[in-house]
Write a structure and sequence with these properties.
The chain is an alpha/beta fold and 320 residues long. It folds into 3 domains: 17-164, Glutaredoxin, CATH 3.40.30; 184-229, no CATH class; 236-319, Alpha Horseshoe (Serine Threonine Protein Phosphatase 5, Tetratricopeptide repeat), CATH 1.25.40. It is 60% helix and 9% strand. Strands 1-3-2-4-5 form a 5-stranded mixed beta sheet, sandwiched between helices. Helix 6 (186-196) runs antiparallel to helix 7 (200-213), helix 10 packs parallel to helix 12 and helix 11 (268-281) packs antiparallel against helix 12 (284-301).
């Protein structure tokens, strides 16, 4: 189940629809190519051992971004010295194999791949992210119980299927996955209904209620981020906001307000670039405020891969 369209028009909805459409086209193309390879080589699918792969900066585009058009890619950021990573890693690997091609696990050693670590804005490890159709979303940080991870994986698969048309890859010896419709969470449905009525405050509270009991709920995270953005700009005076930003280029609050307007107005690169420049101009708490808001906007857009990766690279250059 995907987040409902917002009551206000703007880039949040249009970008999501455009990205989903493009992702579905890529997924269909990937399935056609995979079927053609199988027909020519009598291929029965990948081996279960190929569902867990080590990824580097050099292979990230091929093994994560491109593969995310045919299967949700879960990323495990880890390091040899990290004890919680040693607990979480084997559990993620075992669960990935149990999903029989519905998920691919990409393991990234942060010590050997610092640029990826920085681009994703990882605060600590272990950290688990997902990429679907070239779009990144955080899942959870730190070790987690198996039942909670299974819930997150189930939601990830549902989002991939319903929003992007991505159904996974065939695995040798595995039976085809049965089609299923995940149950509707009444609290999540209440949030969607509030959005349909234009009640942004009610929607935000409903999504927060969902996340309080289920912190890994991907749909609620996406919908909450979008609803909060829409509420921030709902009563804004565009001329006043842009004048304040022009008059105070180093004021993080003025630039954040303008970036929100940029985003809702469809100027995604401008919004990202504005906050990257603000991070560059500021220090201390002001810099951190701008940086964190930029990361929030990445989540809001569910941005197409080139824009997010480019902005994350620019942010990393400024910070480091």
């Amino acid at each position: 189940m995907q987040p409902r369209n917002m009551s206000m028009s703007g880039v949040v909805d249009l970008a999501a629809v455009k990205a989903a459409g493009e992702a579905k086209q890529k997924a269909e193309q990937a399935r056609r190519e995979q079927a053609a390879r199988g027909a020519g080589q009598n291929d029965q699918g990948v081996a279960p051992s190929q569902l867990v792969i080590d990824v580097t900066e050099a292979t990230f585009e091929r093994d994560v971004l491109e593969r995310s058009n045919e299967v949700p890619v879960v990323i495990d950021f880890w390091a040899e010295w990290c004890e919680p990573c040693k607990q979480l890693g084997p559990l993620l690997e075992r669960l990935t194999e149990s999903y029989a091609g519905r998920i691919l696990l990409a393991k990234i050693d942060v010590d050997a791949n610092q640029l990826l670590f920085q681009q994703f804005g990882v605060q600590g490890i272990p950290a688990v992210f997902a990429v679907i159709g070239g779009q990144m979303m955080p899942l959870f940080q730190g070790a987690a119980p198996e039942a909670q991870i299974r819930e997150v994986f189930d939601q990830l698969i549902a989002v991939a299927e319903q929003r992007f048309g991505i159904t996974g890859i065939p695995v040798e010896g595995a039976a085809p996955a049965a089609e299923h419709e995940p149950p509707i969470d009444p609290a999540l449905a209440a949030g969607h209904d509030a959005l349909d009525r234009g009640d942004l405050g009610g929607a935000i509270q409903a999504y927060k209620n969902v996340l309080s009991g289920d912190p890994g709920n991907i749909e609620a995270k996406l919908a909450l981020a979008q609803a909060e953005l829409l509420r921030r700009v709902q009563d804004a005076d565009p001329q006043a906001v842009r004048k304040a930003a022009a008059d105070s280029p180093a004021d993080p609050e003025a630039q954040i307000a303008a970036a929100d307007l940029d985003l809702v107005g469809g100027h995604v690169e401008d919004a990202f670039g504005r906050l990257v420049d603000t991070v560059k101009r500021t220090v201390g708490e002001d810099r951190e405020r701008a940086r964190l808001h930029l990361l929030e906007l990445f989540d809001v857009v569910g941005a197409e891969e080139p824009r997010v990766v480019s902005a994350r690279a620019a942010l990393a250059r400024v910070l480091f």
